[in-house]
Amino acid sequence: MVLSPTDDLPHAGAGVEEWVFAAWTPDAHVGVVSGHRLVAGGDWYWAAVVETGRPLLHLTEWNVLRRADPFIVKAPEMWAEHHCVDPMKQWTVGNEAHAAALDVADEALGRAYGVPTAMATDLEWYATGGIEAIDTATERGYRQVGVMHGLIELLGRPNLELEEIPAVRWHRWSDRSDLGPLPLAAVIAHTGLRAPFAFPNGTVSDWVLTPAGWRARRRPA
User: What is the dihedral angle through the alpha carbons of 96, 101, 107, 108, rounded to the nearest 10 degrees?
Assistant: First the structure.
């Protein structure tokens, strides 16, 4: 599959399309996830911040009215943006919202009722490698490694300053109306930091942080 910088932007005619950014500190004590899906009937936005010894900060909006610029996500008391600064090279990842602080990560797969916690994210993602194509019978896209730096401001706790930490992003689209979960390697051993999400289509993303980055959580047999 041949890809070009224009493939970093929305594809006319795609039935569904998504961008997902993830980053973590080398010591695996802090992790960030930010995703955005364009889908008929109301776009999706989801994000998480995890930190050792702190509650999971969980943020979701599953019925976002699409704007003229689809990368700007606005909902009641929430703003978020994935802005392409330079295709295949640089993106801005930001939000201002009240996340739910969850002491038990499994709560994110249910009602996700937690303590409302104000947060403001201002991050830059830079590519450090080329694209790895995703080309299957049901979807197309790519994965790309990079670094992320910037600031996450948090109410009632120290801010998180990130300096060129390891990061990865995915961009996928399909002519169909749905996408499956991102294909992450599954692990049993991890740091205990999790970012679970229950999506409106019935699929579940349960990511865990490891020293090698984000992985899918696999329960012991």
Answer: 20
Portion of the chain with pLDDT greater than 70, in percent: 99
Residue 92 class from Cβ within 10 Å (0-12 exposed, 13-18 middle, 19+ buried)? middle
In the chain, which residues have pLDDT < 50? none
pLDDT of amino acid 75 = 94
The token pair at 147 is: 């670094």
Q: Domain residue spans in the chain?
A: 15-176
Burial 97-116 (b: 16+ CB within 10 A, else e): bbbbbbeebebbeeebebee
Smallest CA-to-CA distance from 43 within 58, 71, 62, 59 is with: 62
Residue with the two structure tokens 């330079």: 86
